Here is the input.
Amino acid sequence: MPTLIILLAVVAAGMGLSMEAGLLGPLGAEIGHLSATFSIFLVGTLLLTLAMIFSRPRLKLLFAQPRWLLTGGILGPLYVVVLTIATPFVGVGTTMIGILCGQVSASLAIDHFGLLGSDRRPVDSYRLMALVLIVAALWLMH
Here is the structure.
């Protein structure tokens, strides 16, 4: 049962990303792509600050971690800028399928080779077919 709940939460988060793309496109057209990206991170930072006030953050451990683990902070803004720019041109659906295609491609490589500290999960024919179907969906939607 916990796996089902996690999968539902992941699907809901994916729906949230589509909504974010739908909001960012028009916002970026009105105030600029970088300003729209900044606004998303500003609101997120404020919400996380409130959450951290009521939790017990472990920030002391942050700087004891390998520096390469912090590079994820670069990827978030890059992702949001791409969403902001691409969505008005190709639409939310095509943007999300493109994002999904990239996510699944990278995820399969990370799992297969056990990169970034993850457990190895070999790519089998089912996972490869899932990627092929996502690429086909991108081709059909574009």
About this structure: Residues 72-113 form the longest helix (42 residues).
